Amino acid sequence: MTVLAELRAMRRWLPITIVLAAAAAEAVGLGQIAFYLLLVAVPIVAAIALTAFGDLLDGRFEPAESLQALLYGVALLLLVAGAAAGSTAFALSACLATFALQALLGLGVELRRPVLDLER
């Protein structure tokens, strides 16, 4: 795996991991830690959203994957709105729903790719 592929994989998993950690902290009853984890997620999701938007402008995305940049923007908006309102439950549920939609979109893209016939 190349370094670029590893960075792309980390770019996808890092915000999901932070939001899941915040959801676990909220479920255990550590609301303050969940709030701070959401605050940590804001600049990370912002950087990923800007990178995805830059890739979109450079034309590096397939048409079906171009929705990823929009979904990162939506996740950022919901994180900021939830953190500003002090409602970690809203921010967590909205972000998890957005990330689930991104996962379904990625799964759809992967399923539509042709399979290489290696038996020839």
Structure write-up:
With about 120 residues, this protein is mostly helical. About 80% of the residues lie in helices and about 0% in strands. The radius of gyration is 16 Å and the shape is elongated.
Which residues form runs of ≥5 with pLDDT under 50? none
Q: What is the number of helices?
A: 4
Structural category is mainly alpha
Q: Hey, roughly how much beta strand do the residues contain?
A: under 5%
Largest sheet: none
What is the overall pLDDT average? 80
Order of helices and strands: HHHH
Helicity range of the residues?
Answer: over 70%
Distance between the termini: 25 Å
Computed CA radius of gyration, to the nearest angstrom: 16 Å
Number of strands: 0
Apparent shape = elongated
Can you tell me the number of structural domains? 1
